[in-house]
Amino acid sequence: MDLQREFHMTGGVGKTSYARNSSFQKKAYDQAKDIILKTLQQLYKETRPKSLGIADLGCSSGPNTLSTIRDIIKAVIVAHHPFPGSFYGRLFPENTIHFIYASFSLHWLSKIPPGLYDDQGKSINKGCINICSSSPEAVSKAYYSQFKEDFSMFLRSRSKEVVAAGRMVLIILGREGPEHVGRGNSFLWELLARAIADLVSQGEIEEEKLDSYELHFYAPSAAEIEGEVNKEGSFELEKLDMLEVDMEWGNEDGISYGKAVAKTIRAVQESMLASHFGEEILDKLFDTYGRIIDEEIAKEDIKHITFFVVLRRKL
């Protein structure tokens, strides 16, 4: 019998497949995972290779190999960039990445724009938590300035890591035109500020807490994205499409559109809000928020503008 040809794990995803019957092997890996990853990280720290070659011998088929490779990649990233923080700066060795996918991340800024504070460290954006209809012009300028700084850093960092002709695909929440205020993505934050203000009026939150809370969110326009890509110069803009995503929230769980949106926003912002305002107000806050969204959506739609961007590393 030709063992090299005949001996292999059962492929596919059927009842007798290796993919569905290899939990024992997965448990063994899980027990040894810490040692495997620490060994790999130690190797990386000692050698600091330009690129790291890794082979999985006898990897067979199924999810075990994919989860192992995922763990290995994460371990190398941690070893290369050991402190938690921004993805805007350098992450990978030079000329090692062929494809980067960044989905719903680049509208989150690396920090609160410094320009939002006066000489005494007080916010100039009182009553708002992002760009809103009552924000002074300096607020939108501060957010735009921070976006330009962050996005250009992101492009510079990735230009070192992505090989020539490599691609980046980005999905970014944005806005339709030059005006910062409207019924787009930022409007949802204005409504959240309104919900917080409602609790302030009831004496459940101090007004100073609202005035001192700012979101690190910016919804760029297509022109702003294109402008920064052209200015940095390392990537060619292959595609920049605007998608008006239809948010079919609500009804499935017997809840309203507003309540469903509020649940989604809570999943994104809960840790920040709990840290600043306290966990005890969150249920009431998001109940109020859902009601306000329902009231607004009954008047006019809220547009969830999303940009789909494809960048090609220049040769």
TrEMBL record:
GO molecular function terms attached to this record: metal ion binding; S-adenosylmethionine-dependent methyltransferase activity
Phylogenetic classification of the source organism: Eukaryota, Viridiplantae, Streptophyta, Embryophyta, Tracheophyta
Organism: Brassica napus
Domain of life: Eukaryota
GO biological process terms held by the UniProt record: methylation
PANTHER family named in the record: S-ADENOSYL-L-METHIONINE:CARBOXYL METHYLTRANSFERASE FAMILY PROTEIN
Keywords: Magnesium, Metal-binding, Methyltransferase, S-adenosyl-L-methionine, Transferase
Protein's UniProt name: BnaA08g15230D protein
